[in-house]
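User: Before I run my own analysis I want an independent prediction to cross-check against. Here's the chain; please return only the structure tokens and, at the end, one sentence I can use as a sanity check.
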Amino acid sequence: MKETTYTPNAPAPVGPYSQAVKVNGFVYTAGQLGIDPETGELAGSDIGSQTAQALANVREILAAAGCGIDDIVKVTLYVTHLRLFHEVNAVYGAFFADEGVTSPPARAIAEVSALPLGAQIEIDAIAAVPNQTQ
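Assistant: Structure tokens:
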């Protein structure tokens, strides 16, 4: 059975989709931009600020679905400028370290021509629901 997740601690979807869907022991988040859920605006004009906020949004959505950062098995990053990879990687690495994750998830990164709302990064994740039999 498919279950959708919503939390006010992450931005409301900007289109007709769910923040996350839980099915068969996994949670699939929608792509998260670096939108501050309190203001509805991008957290900053730089990719580092947007990366930090997008990851925080993923964390809040996963928490609402009963998962934590350590439960993430796969992350996909979409960036508008691959040349900024080092900035993204620094924020990303610090985020997982700060969360106490010793074994980071698998990851892919792709450059895209544009993202909604002029964002520079979008992040989605797949997490395994803890203590749930497949």
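Sanity check: The two ends are 12 Å apart (CA to CA).
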